[in-house]
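Comment on the following before class.
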Amino acid sequence: MNHIELPTTSGAYRWYYVDVSSGDFTAVFIFMVGSIFSARYSMALKKGGLPREHAAVNFALYEKGVRTMWVLTEYGTVKTPDSKTLQIGNSELTYGANTLTAIIRDKTTPFLMTQWGEPTHVELELTPEGPSHDEVVLVPGLSHRWRPIAARSKATVRVKSHQLEFTGHAYHDGNHGQVPLGSDLRGWDWARTQSPDATTIAYRPWADAPSHHVRVDATRAAASVSTADPVPTVRSTWGLRVPSTLGVTGLPTLIESSPFYARLEAREGSHHALGEVADFARFHSRSVRWMANFRTRSGDAT
């Protein structure tokens, strides 16, 4: 299905992302090496900090558009026992011949006032239901790469620590680059929509470059670009411009909000849309990095 690759140079990054939606529930898993959400990595770049020294695992669970669990823990080491397995702390992501499995064993991040380092055990089993797509150069001349590895998938999530299990539509991709986000590519907005017959993704870089669109069904993965792809926006309470539509009827719900990052969700019948906005030029400011520390737990301190 895929294999693990690790970034090696200072400022580089790579992450593996999965989201799963089922009824009222949405879950997001991210395994990051050279964590793009790490204030520590951002500050360490002046001294040549390496991506392996700033690996992180993230898990978020939402019910009816409200976050109920949040894990974001950073570690100073990462392990790859073989080309198919990535280990960060006690969590693990593994590629099989035609499957992806992940286990999150960690603690919730204490910034949620109702969750002070609660033990968390989550398992993911994902199977593609459509073809993969080739890697995409997001902006010609810049280093960022995106690959919809298994955009059309089915997955089961078992939150064993909270006696919850659900199966639903899933999306899996990977992103990587050789220089810090915000230094050449300021940011982007991205959205994927799951429908009964296909998954569609729109990836819009904040640069003088076209937007990328990918549609995946059971037999085909097709890509196109659009030079004129305006999206209406509104300002969040942090002043970040976020889409006022994700392509389905009704206003999206803002399920994560910060000065540099937002995650949005919308539902319409059997259609489910999830999107994000990321402004990494904002992230590297001193005040935003300081706030980011409150959303991240240091696993090496436990």
